[in-house]
Design brief:
94 residues; alpha+beta
């Protein structure tokens, strides 16, 4: 399992969210296992998405796809997203 963190800004969260939700089926077919959506505590249009993915290769292919680029443009994503691929090292107690 690989984790992908994406940070991007959007013009308007409420306009962006339906595009994100509709694209869920496409993500799932590409190997996405779900994730969590966060926004900055200071700015609701500054988004952080933590995805779980089956394999790094599938995540990379999806993130580099023209389909995703077109969807982000339609959804109002501003600029180029920051993308980080992560592997969990361990869980730890408080």
């Amino acid at each position: 399992m690989v984790y992908v963190v994406i940070r991007h800004k959007v013009e308007d969260y409420s306009e962006w969210k339906p595009f994100f939700d509709e694209h869920g089926t496409t993500r799932g077919k590409a190997g996405c296992k779900g994730g969590q959506l966060f926004c900055s505590s200071d700015e609701t249009n500054d988004l952080f998405i933590l995805f779980e993915w089956d394999k790094k290769e599938n995540a990379t292919e999806f993130i580099e796809s023209e389909d995703l680029k077109e969807t982000m443009q339609k959804a109002g994503v501003i600029g180029k997203p920051e993308v980080y691929f992560l592997e969990k090292i361990e869980d730890f107690p408080v």
